[in-house]
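During the second year of the project, the team shifted from modelling isolated chains to modelling whole assemblies. The rationale, set out in the original proposal, was that interfaces cannot be judged from single-chain predictions alone. As a representative example for this report, we include one of the complexes processed in the last quarter. Its constituent sequences, exactly as entered into the pipeline, are reproduced here:
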Amino acid sequence: MAPIGLLSQGILERLDAGELVIGDGGFVFALEKRGYVKAGPWTPEAAIEHPDAVRQLHREFLRAGSNVMQTFTFYASDDKLENRGNKLTFTGAQINEAACDLAREVANEGDALVAGGVSQTPSYLSCKSEREVKAIFKKQMDVFIKKNVDFLIAEYFEHVEEATWAVEVLKETGKPVAVTLCIGPEGDMHGVPPAECAVRLVNAGAQIVGVNCHFDPLTCVKTVKMMKEGVEKARLKAHYMVQPLAYHTPDCSCQGFIDLPEFPFSLEPRILTRWDMHKYAREAYKAGIRYIGGCCGFEPYHIRAVAEELGPERGFLPAASEKHGAWGAGLGMHTKPWVRARARQDYWENLKPASGRPLCPSMSAPDHWGVTKGHTDLMQQKEATSQDQLKQLFNRSSSH
Amino acid sequence: MAPIGLLSQGILERLDAGELVIGDGGFVFALEKRGYVKAGPWTPEAAIEHPDAVRQLHREFLRAGSNVMQTFTFYASDDKLENRGNKLTFTGAQINEAACDLAREVANEGDALVAGGVSQTPSYLSCKSEREVKAIFKKQMDVFIKKNVDFLIAEYFEHVEEATWAVEVLKETGKPVAVTLCIGPEGDMHGVPPAECAVRLVNAGAQIVGVNCHFDPLTCVKTVKMMKEGVEKARLKAHYMVQPLAYHTPDCSCQGFIDLPEFPFSLEPRILTRWDMHKYAREAYKAGIRYIGGCCGFEPYHIRAVAEELGPERGFLPAASEKHGAWGAGLGMHTKPWVRARARQDYWENLKPASGRPLCPSMSAPDHWGVTKGHTDLMQQKEATSQDQLKQLFNRSSSH
Amino acid sequence: MAPIGLLSQGILERLDAGELVIGDGGFVFALEKRGYVKAGPWTPEAAIEHPDAVRQLHREFLRAGSNVMQTFTFYASDDKLENRGNKLTFTGAQINEAACDLAREVANEGDALVAGGVSQTPSYLSCKSEREVKAIFKKQMDVFIKKNVDFLIAEYFEHVEEATWAVEVLKETGKPVAVTLCIGPEGDMHGVPPAECAVRLVNAGAQIVGVNCHFDPLTCVKTVKMMKEGVEKARLKAHYMVQPLAYHTPDCSCQGFIDLPEFPFSLEPRILTRWDMHKYAREAYKAGIRYIGGCCGFEPYHIRAVAEELGPERGFLPAASEKHGAWGAGLGMHTKPWVRARARQDYWENLKPASGRPLCPSMSAPDHWGVTKGHTDLMQQKEATSQDQLKQLFNRSSSH
Amino acid sequence: MAPIGLLSQGILERLDAGELVIGDGGFVFALEKRGYVKAGPWTPEAAIEHPDAVRQLHREFLRAGSNVMQTFTFYASDDKLENRGNKLTFTGAQINEAACDLAREVANEGDALVAGGVSQTPSYLSCKSEREVKAIFKKQMDVFIKKNVDFLIAEYFEHVEEATWAVEVLKETGKPVAVTLCIGPEGDMHGVPPAECAVRLVNAGAQIVGVNCHFDPLTCVKTVKMMKEGVEKARLKAHYMVQPLAYHTPDCSCQGFIDLPEFPFSLEPRILTRWDMHKYAREAYKAGIRYIGGCCGFEPYHIRAVAEELGPERGFLPAASEKHGAWGAGLGMHTKPWVRARARQDYWENLKPASGRPLCPSMSAPDHWGVTKGHTDLMQQKEATSQDQLKQLFNRSSSH
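Output from the structure prediction step:
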């Protein structure tokens, strides 16, 4: 099913050639629902404890159209694994190795690349030095080099400063480096705007920049557009990627869905439909983003929808589309005539789905405890300012 | 992990002894999202095509607390497999056999029973004779006997008449027989009230009766209560089971979620949270129902929530609770202090989750094309009457 | 503008001749918003204190199409005027007289009849005897006879028993008697169903029966239909009237909007549009109700909408329609082209108006303190039962 | 009830002395609901046709706490009176005279000032010259001088250019001049930001500047704050006023509620409660605004709520508060105990009122036909830009 021409090409060759690259979805949320990840610490020990479950999820994303198998190594740094009472009997290295093996095994079943992933560290938030933080990333690199991943992703950084440090470490491996911040249009937690964040990351050596997590697809696409404008204005060159939430977050402020009262156990009403994903994929493509994937909340069918929307551009459909049919075409085989009548694009495109929850509102007032502590005094300053802005925003957009 | 005392006991022994039996969730919806089932025909050929995917889902439910592995044989009758242009290269027998093997393999990994499942047939709806319809069920029984399942479930029947025929066929195997209709408080599609349906099914030989699918948990519990009252009033004896949707359906009429405009591809905003499942499990238990499971929309974490709510009654927690913690206790290890502050029962119990969809309503106006054609003229009569009732109901409960 | 033929005909002559009679709207809520009535006691001393304000409201309803000027004498019984710390310097007789004069003055400006109104008493609720309660109504009758009103309305009774006593007193005057309970389909506060209530009231001598207040228009129409069926089944004869709220109350239980958390100061989001009123008027007419008016929440434009919807049946439009135009036709003169594009029936009929309140839900959980104490032990019994029913209802229709 | 000290002081003396001035509410919407104004043309011929109705509304606002009786002369320019097929038999001068007499009559009953009002003209929109447009305002001034109003208000201008012309004409009378644009934070229809608009208007001679209509209270307060900052930055001096809608408009774009699909006949669900008005009054006061009133949607009880919230600052309550009681205190006299339990501030402050409309959303997608044509090409440019901004905004804040 995989197109011949793409085989054994690297991520940069693909992007340089104008190919679309489809990412996978978020493993920690998907595996939490399947029973293998604990919400709170969100650590990936399942790579060792339950390899079948992790392998199966990789396969589902591959089948849904993903070109990248990202190692299930989120928060797999030693400082995070022992953070706040999370007691694990595995070292970071053990988890990283097991995750690499699983990703490679499934990647080899198709045309996918393996991306080794690192993410922000508690060490940075507790004001450890640049040297100490970099040492953490370095340890993970040792595994990724040993396991020979195809490229690297530094993802889920709230502070561009830490992300820059990560890029500098990843860069030393010689592998292609992608980096995504978990920020929205208001910028990082120190108040650095998206455009400036992107410039700093490209200057640090990243070839692919973008955002992941924390906000819904259209907000993330908007943020990456701001990054792209910054990079182009600085006459730099980069590729762009986006891996958003699969949750609607119109009511979020600068820190994203973490602040929503529904995080993380009552987000169900916000889950995007597959049709929402069609819109997302199209908007991301129109914005010039060519690495398009997902994060928390994405299930395989969400990635499939992205792959189906971009089927014309890619020239083929994912394997899982054999069990779908464009825009609900499979409903043509349903027993009820009124369900058969829904086997058409305009029906699903225009539907405004009800929540079935008449006692619940459509929007929430996010928690406003301010942003997580970090390195500098700028933080406190930013906090005060953003609180004011948020309040104004809130007063404007809310009603009661 | 499984409590010693239960091993090798049958379903009736367990229920007679007052044990709680936790069912699994709906496979067709869960596997559709994972890419292995086609919405519309909803047939279970994945049991042959993708056994790993089916096995993994069985394991997740087992780990979440399910005591029953139901064979993935929904709509696996020959007449359904070739219905409306669905072209399959497998016979019903082949699918049923593969599904039995998968269910048994995983059941043996824990303390679970295997239940062979049959469901309503297109033959009944197209007015085939009792003999013809029964022959279809008989073919499936041949496989279930050969594979020696532990008991049988006839599920998802809209007409009590067809369900009765199924029970009569299943009964001949000598295995325990459970039967669930997909009806609400208004009764079956011929207008037979739940109480009368239950009496007929018990008289036909079913030892366990109840409802599955089509309505949300509290509506299903209410319907089973009506069945129980009917059985008790008739001085009969039965056990009760309930396997509802994991979707809120306050706006449904007699035919359930099939009529909702969101069926089946935009139901996301209606998905129950794990906390909704706690309420469901408690209500079902208080109603005297002892076989408590799920149907479409249930993911493993929903079943885990049922098992956690009923932990005190069962005396143990499911394996998957090692990755959970009661009422969000795992959040105590989160990095953000305001998320840590949510690690408590009253927070999640009282939260009214927002949809994040300000342009969407809370309720839908269901399609009212009338019920699916069936055997008798009563149908048309019922149709007219129920339309009127629905309209009144709708006028009452809607607003605009 | 008034059709010649109707002049000087009485209420019964009109109804017997098959004429439509349009009532007015609720004075206490309208005058509360204008600053002349105090929410809580809801007493009508403004008839003396601010006659201009009361006269103006009468005129607006007359102009909107009302055929009846109901005296502003709600809760104007002596026992109510001094209830719970409400200190008034006027006697009930004084208020009743002033109100009669105002109603007559405006009625004479058009083709309207004057209806003297009485309502339920605190004396009944505090278990005074039939004799005592009747004496209160009798005092009001003395004024109405002296002022020679055209007919009498006993309205806003929660208990059919007290309403029956009122009808018996009113009947003695020889004037035509109308009576409305403030009940819904579940019946009065002692649990007497609408059909039986209606039969008792007709047997007590009422020529016109129906409901007012407490529920939204379609719920009230449904209740009057139940009354009508009861009366017809008993082979009695009556005319029917309905004067509902102008608030959507899909979430109310047996005691109506009093139980809603929004009562009485945050009901704004529930106010019916004029287009909702068109539907109401049509449904009421189709149900065979010929006295169609309004209660709390009705403003003059709501009554005008009723009169416009029933314009074809009445053969003329109300005076106030000179400032309207059917279905928004006046918008054809608006400066903005997209507003001019809304000057059409299907636009307004199909619009689902947004609340502009994203943090607010669509439905409320009503207070369930049980019904107000009354005469008998049946009450307590009813209370328990209805609480159970409500809970079931609530569980069914709510979702969270 | 009126405080002695204020008597016979002019508007500027009051504001210079730091007094609070409370405006009235919008007459055209209030009188449309009472049956005297036609939606579409929105012209004020009722001043002649139905003086009792207009006088009564003036009295209600006076009683609610208004210090200003604004002449009912909205859209009373000759070019508007004959616009788009609106056929009136009165001249603008006749209407303006009648309106002045009514306002003065009621103002004299209390401590109120009379403000002569002019508003934007169709002549400006159809590109008439400055001379022609000014001539229209001049004609109205002749009446206001003859009738000796206390001060002048130019209100409801979408273009600061036309407003400036109006101020220049009004200024020539020697009367104090207030001016309000119907704009939001995005500025006027040519894209001039609020700060710059305010500076231009002050430079043209206005002593009081602000906004009215088109947006909800908090949005209007925010806009006036932007104006104030602009004036202060320019080292000019002015007083500030705000007269917003009584409708929630979180979903509006630059042209305000005109674009909402609910305008003007289905805005009911958006009506502010009295408690929303408390928040508004406090926010306006905190922003340094001292002339605080209302526009479309305001009923007398809304103005009373403003006057009650600012009672401590003013030192007295309005006359109409004799029929209210702070924060629902009057409910202490209600017959139902659970309603009596609501006689407290925190109950009403925290209530999130339900709409009772489960089939309706909380937000609307406004019409985006672009802004009304005006004088310059800037318009088209602005239109394109703002459409893009809106789209982005919409994508961000909406969800589906």
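Chain B touches chain A through 89 residues (CB under 8 Å). Chain B has 17 helices and eight strands.
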